[in-house]
Input
Amino acid sequence: DAMVIQNPRYQVTQFGKPVTLSCSQTLNHNVMYWYQQKSSQAPKLLFHYYDKDFNNEADTPDNFQSRRPNTSFCFLDIRSPGLGDAAMYLCATSTDGGGQPQHFGDGTRLSIL
Amino acid sequence: SQQGEEDPQALSIQEGENATMNCSYKTSINNLQWYRQNSGRGLVHLILIRSNEREKHSGRLRVTLDTSKKSSSLLITASRAADTASYFCATEGVNTDKLIFGTGTRLQVFP
Output
């Protein structure tokens, strides 16, 4: 089945230790999104790619970066995680961006020790 | 910036009852979407309603949109225990391909 897959489902890292979360898709969608969702809150968009074009949200901390080496894969890098970065990170895809539903992976829950 | 506000924040009902959730937003939109999120899982798209539509149905789901009041409602009829989840509205603004999610409603359906 075509889907969005996030690995790992759970990630534990130490304060200040870089961490990378991955997302892959078999939907062949050209738009990929990364959201941060803290407990009992709405998902908050960090950035998105329209094909290779990277779009950063104005309030996304510099600590967060992303790579999209090809259509199928997208990575979220957190350079120096702080305690406030503990959250669920959700990857989503859509076709053509506008007016289309987004398809989400099951997320990676990140814990910071 | 969080555009959508949902109410109630939490809703508890018995199986078989109807559940209604409301969403209000602030600026002009191209469309409004509803998503479901089971605990610890990703979001699942339920229904999309465009700004020129007033009502849409999908199975037991009924969504209304009132652009003059900048509000939408999601009705789940004949609820089941499996409907227990958080429900989020999300708006797509004009000239953007981004969604802004509301605060969500936590629905608990008791068997």
In short: The first strand of chain A starts at residue 4 and ends at 7. Chain A touches chain B at residues 4, 6, 31, 40-45, 48, 50, 90, 92, 94, 96-107, 109 (CB under 8 Å). The mean pLDDT of chain A is 94.
